[in-house]
Structures are given as C-alpha cells and as structure tokens.
Design brief:
Shape of chain B: rod-shaped
Largest interface: A-B, 55 and 46 residues
Number of helices of chain B: 3
Radius of gyration of chain A: 25 Å
Distance between the termini of chain A: 53 Å
Radius of gyration of chain B: 23 Å
Structural class of chain A: mainly alpha
Oligomer: heterodimer
Strand order of the largest sheet of chain A: 1-2
Chain lengths: ~625, ~110
C-alpha cells in the first residue's frame, strides 16, 4: 500500500476509536462534564495529562527547534518538564483537596472576591484561546502535508471531531480519548527514533545512541562519538558547535530566564491544572503528577536524540551531493517547500551558516512567489550573473536560510528508510497531539464561561440541566471560534504562545501559591499583584514583539531579556506587590482561614467543616 | 473554668495539623532544592563548567547532558520521592489524629 493509503487507514481508524470512546463515556451531569466525575485512576490521568500537554508543537516542531539550537534547545526540554515538579509539589494536591471545578474557582473562593474570580477567568480564557488557535492550525497542517487536502478542509474536519467528542462526553470523554491519543502519538514518535538511532549508532535506544559512537560505515572511521563528529561538522560549516553553551543571544541570563519562565508558566496553565481535579483523592493527585511527567519524559527524553540524529543525518546526506545523488526524502519534502535548494552553479549542495549557503525554506512565501524566484535564479545561473536575480540573496534577506524546523520530525521516518506504514503513522500521531491539546483547552474555555462566569457570577440559581446546556453550547461556540482562528491565523500565533506562558507565570502561579502557603494574604493585595504581574508582562511582550522595543538590558546585561523569559520578572513583581501590600490590608475571614487549613491536609479532619458543607461539591 | 470538650479536641487536632504542615514544608524545601540544583544549576548556571567533563564514558559533555537529559530524569525522580514521602507522612498524620481522638475519649468518657 502507498503512504497515502496507509495514512487514510490510520487516520480513519484512530478517529473511529476516538468517537467510540466518546460515545461510551457520554455524561449527564456537570460533575461528569467538568471533572469526569472525579473517577479517573491516576495512571490514566497521567496519560491524559501527558497527551493534553504535548501539543502539535511538542510533537512536530520541538525536535526541529532543538536541532537548530543545540544546547540552548534545552530551555524547552527543561522548561516544559520542570514545571511539573512545581505543579506536583506546590499546586496539584492542594487544589485537588479544595475540590471544585476550575482554577478561577479557587482564586475566587480563596480571595473571597468575584473581582479576583473575574481577573482569573479573563486570564484563563486568554491563555487558552492563544493556545488553541495554534492547535487547530496544526490539525490543518498535518492534513495538508500527509493527505494533500487543503489546510482549511483539514481544520474543518478537526473541528467536527473535537466538537462531537467534547460536547458529548465533556471532561470524561476528553480524558479517555486523550488516553488513547497518548498511545498513538508516543508510538508514532518512538518507532522512527529507535530506527534512526540504530541506523546511525547501532544502538536502538536513542538516549544511549546520542551519547554513543557512530557506526564505522556511517562515519568513515571507527570510534568517533556522534556528538563530537557533529560538533566538528557544524563548526566547519560556520554553525555554532552543537553542544556548546551560551552562544549568541542565548547567554546565561536568557537561558536561565526562559527556562524558568517556561517552568512557572507550565505550572500555571489552567488546562494542565484542571486535570488534577479529575482524580479520586489527594494521594491520587500526587501519583498522577508523577505518571504524567513519566509519560511526558518518554517523548521529551527522545526528542533531543532525534534532534541530534536528524541534524547529523541531514547535513551528512545533503552536503556535497549532486542533484542525482540527493536522498528521496529531500525530493519528497522539497515539494512542500519546507526545504529548498538554490544552487550557485557548481551542481553540488552546500548547507552552511555562511553566505555560500544553498539550502532554504519557503516560509510564508506562496507557490507563485517561489516559482518566480526559481525562474529568476535559473536565469541568473544560466547567464552567469548577467541577468536574472540570485535567489539565494532574496531568501537570505527574508530570513529564510536553512530548512523549516518541522522537517526534522516529519522526515525522520524517511531518513531512516522505514516502511510506508510507519511514515503514515506519523500523521495519526501529529493529529492525536493536536486534537488532544485542543480538546483540553476547549474544556477550560467552556468551564471558565459556563461555570465561573454564568453559574458563579451571573446566575447562581441555574439548574443542573441548564448549566450542562450552557457548558455544551460554550464548547460549541469555542470550537467554531478556534476553527476560524485556524483558518485565518492571526500572523502572530507563534509569538503569542510566549505570551500564554508569560501570563500564566505572572498571574496564576504566584497567586495560587500564596493562596495556599500564606493565610495572611487578603483580597486586595492579591488582585493588585495579579494585575501588576499581567500588566507588566503584557506590556513588555507587546512592546517588544509588535512595536519593536529594544529588550531591556538594565545597563548590565550583554543581551536584553528575551520576551519569552519576561514571565520570571512578572512573577517576581506579582509576589513583591502582593506581599508588599499585605500588611496594610486585613487578613482573610475566619471561614477562609479554615478553608486554607482544610486544603493543607489530606485527611479532611481539620477544623474546617463549615466551608466544606456549605459549598457546592 | 477548664477547657470545654471541643477546645481540647480542636487544640489536639490543631497541633497535629501544624506538625503535619511543618514536616510537609521541610520535604518541599529539600525537594525544591534538588529541582533547582539539577535543572537551573547543572543545566544552566554551571553548564559551561560541567561541559569540560563527560558523562561517564559517553560522548555527552556533562552540562549538555544535564540540559537535554539529566534534568528531566531528576525531575521525574523528585516527584517519585515526593509521592512516597508524602504518603508516608500522611499515614503518620492519620495515626496522630487517631491518638488525639482516643485521648479525648479517655479524658471525657461521657
């Protein structure tokens, strides 16, 4: 069977599976809809959290990003896993003990104020929409690359699938679908990784292979470490050595800030936090944080290995080759313009970091733009520079040197010369990653609007049936909005993801941590802290990304603070403002203090029984 | 006037709760220190120094290994240790509460 036939087979099978799971786990009450009836076992919740967390970006783009960044790519690896330690130790067990439905619920109840609740709702919705837009686009991109349908058709198919299983099963349907999606995506990611590791180093385990010795027939000599060889090739071609620390703008301060901001942001992302409301007990919440990170680590420990292998393999199989010698994966992916070759006339490929580089990507250019550049370039080569335009200079000026990062993961199975069905499995894996994250985010949007806004603020007398209906309708509307973002992507989607992390780090993380670990912090200091954190972080990112403000150096740093790392300062500001104002405002009421006591211990035997009984559970 | 029954009950439980929270904070501090040293320390702050060494007999420079592999492995272990030690602490806390309740029953058999 051809790759396309296999792809249709896998996509159809996996979608049927997701829909059957949704039908089997359909729900009738809000408890099932928002927190899956609190009956999810911890290992299953761990898998669901892992699938929820690993988005299209983790699956398709991360290894490519690391491949291009080398050591500094570790900020994503450390940032997106280290956050789980903060989550497991500082947030998850306590929020599970608190036991409502959403993050704004905790903020609103602990700080005893609907204003605090409202600020939290706005943050949750903003963060989730920023994120979900990228996921829907991801679904479209996977469809278009593997099945050669239009991106927009792909987005609509994705919308329909998510709509059905999210409205039918709510959190319960989403959770069990995510468990299935985890297995699809991790299988699709690991098989090619094992294969390429074996091909290059003779060791199937990628983590050992990356630190291992290259096969003599690959390296041309025996006993050379892969990373050493890679470093040598990279510096020959003018790139930074792969394992060297702190090169260019990625100095120590920026690597530190970005890694820490991603950790704090991860711990504050509402769609991850709510997953811990779905388990049976505090103990189960702790264990499910462990399972989640373990399952995530399966992909995150493999991605850097894939990055290193693919980097080596790509440079090695392209440089110095003539058009006839080029590998088949290059020819296949050149059609998608993720990778382009514009020769300088010697008939041999040269991929380097210097001006003689001949490997580019299409980026946002349309097919007709690229066609024109190619024609002009051919003319320039044929006339030996007398007429036409050197396409390399055009693309270099547009910042399109080097292949698209996504190609690293997408082309790995072909680089390793795997069977057609494995190449097709990648499509199902990419779709699973994008759909699972999208559905988790849509549920957060739905619960923020239907539960926090409608039920807790606007209409507290709403009946169960009514609330469920509002919840379902909001998911429906959110799917459509997300789909529209996917079809007409606001050009800044990739930049605003940094925004989502920055905001989560500067708003939710400090506010929730203080809410649990301090009994003294009252309503207004917390609201002021959140507002200051969000305000500062948004100002810096918007000014840097959209208005070209120079990143701040505070007069001492060599390179300014990367907008991705500003969440760290936002968080410090939030802490400083909240703690600075606390002595001037009253402590929380006694009922709230009792609630904090009850959140702090797992037994339910603490003095606080009044609040527990009075609240809706 | 002596303490009423509920006061005794509350203060015994209060003590147990405070002890539990204090021990919880100790565990948290120790584990967060490990988290920070492995991730932000070895992976970032000392990575350039550590890169002069290799991870056992492999091709991994040590700082690079921490940034791309080691820190993640340590993070998983930190959460594992947290789960085990907190579950042990929970059991201990449970026993203390039972003892406090028994004492209360013994002092006031009515």
């Amino acid at each position: 069977m051809s790759v396309t036939a296999w792809t249709y087979f896998f996509v159809a099978t996996s979608f049927t599976l997701y829909l059957s799971i949704a039908w089997l786990s359909r729900v009738r009450d809000t408890r099932g809809f928002y927190v899956a009836g609190r009956g999810v076992p911890s290992a299953a919740n761990g898998m669901a959290t892992a699938a929820d967390w690993m988005s299209a970006a983790s699956f398709i783009s991360m290894a490519g990003l690391i491949s291009a960044m080398g050591y500094a790519g570790g900020v994503y690896l450390m940032g997106w896993t280290g956050g789980y330690v903060l989550l497991a130790l500082l947030l998850a067990p306590y929020l599970r003990k608190f036991g409502h439905y959403t993050v704004p619920d905790f903020v609103g109840d602990r700080y005893d104020s609907n204003w605090a609740r409202l600020v939290a709702v706005i943050c949750a919705i903003f963060v989730s929409f920023t994120y979900v837009a990228g996921q829907m686009r991801g679904v479209g991109v996977v469809f278009s690359r593997f099945l050669e349908v239009d991106i927009n058709v792909g987005v609509v198919i994705g919308m329909a699938i998510v709509f059905i299983y999210a409205t039918l099963g709510g959190m319960k349907g989403i959770t069990w679908t995510q468990v299935a999606q985890y297995w699809v995506l991790i299988t699709a990611f690991l098989i090619p990784a094992f294969a390429i590791s074996f091909k290059l180093t003779g060791t199937p385990l990628p983590q050992a292979g990356l630190g291992g010795v290259l096969r003599p027939e690959v390296a041309g000599e025996s006993g050379v470490y892969l990373l050493e060889k890679l470093n040598a090739i990279q510096s020959d071609l003018g790139f930074n050595r792969y394992t060297d620390t702190f090169t260019g703008a990625w100095d120590k301060v920026n690597v530190f800030c970005v890694a820490l901001a991603l950790m704090l942001g991860t711990a504050g992302l509402p769609h991850v936090i709510v997953r811990f409301y779905t388990v049976k007990s505090v103990k189960a919440a702790r264990w499910s944080a462990f399972w989640a990170l373990l399952f995530i680590a399966c992909l995150y420990l493999t991605a850097p290995a894939v990055a290193g292998f693919a980097r080596y393999y790509m440079i090695d199989s392209l440089n110095g080759k003539s058009a006839e010698e080029l590998p088949s994966w290059f020819v296949n992916w050149e059609r998608t313009s993720l990778i382009l070759w514009l020769d300088d006339g010697d008939g041999l490929v040269r991929y380097s970091a210097r001006e003689d580089n001949e490997i580019f990507r299409g980026g946002p250019l349309t097919a007709s733009d690229l066609g024109r550049i190619r024609v002009d370039h051919q003319l320039w080569m044929d006339s030996e520079g007398a007429r036409g335009v050197d396409g390399r200079e055009v693309l270099r000026a547009r910042g399109l040197s080097g292949p698209d990062n996504d190609i690293i993961v997408l082309a790995t199975p072909e680089m390793a010369e795997l069977a057609n069905w494995i190449i097709a499995l990648m499509a199902a894996g990419g779709l699973a990653a994008a759909l699972s994250t999208a559905s988790g985010l849509l549920l957060v949007i739905s619960s923020s609007v239907a539960h926090d806004l409608y039920y807790r603020v606007i209409n507290p007398q709403a009946t169960e049936k009514n609330r469920l209906l509002v919840g379902r309708s909001v998911i429906g509307i959110a799917v459509v909005v997300a789909g529209v973002f996917g079809i007409y992507p606001p050009g800044f989607v990739s930049q605003v993801v940094a925004f989502a992390f920055g905001l989560a780090a500067a708003s939710f993380f400090p506010t929730i941590v203080l809410g649990i670990f301090s009994k003294r912090v009252g309503t207004w200091p917390a609201i002021a802290g959140m507002t200051a954190g969000i305000g500062f972080t948004s100002f810096y990112i918007v000014a840097c990304v959209f208005f070209g403000m120079q990143p701040w150096t505070f007069g001492v740093l060599e390179h300014g603070i990367n907008p991705q790392g500003i969440g760290v300062l936002g968080m410090l500001l939030n802490f400083a403002v909240t703690l600075g104002l606390t002595p001037f405002f009253p402590a929380p009421r006694e009922e709230i203090q009792d609630m904090i006591d009850s959140v702090r211990e797992p037994e339910g035997a603490g003095p606080a029984t009044v609040i527990e009984a009075s609240m809706d559970h | 006037m002596g303490k009423t029954k509920t006061d005794v009950h509350r203060s015994a439980l209060r003590k147990a709760l405070d002890a539990y929270w204090f021990r919880n904070l100790l565990i948290l501090r120790a584990l967060l220190l490990v988290w920070a040293v492995a991730g932000l320390g070895c992976g970032v702050l000392f990575a350039d120094r550590l890169n002069e060494y290799h991870f056992f007999n492999t091709g991994y420079p040590l700082g690079f290994w921490f940034a791309h592999q080691g820190s993640i492995i340590v993070f998983v272990l930190v959460i594992l240790v947290y789960c085990l030690s907190m579950n042990a602490l929970d059991r201990k806390h449970h026993r203390e509460i039972e003892i406090a309740r028994d004492q209360e029953r013994a002092e006031d058999p009515s």
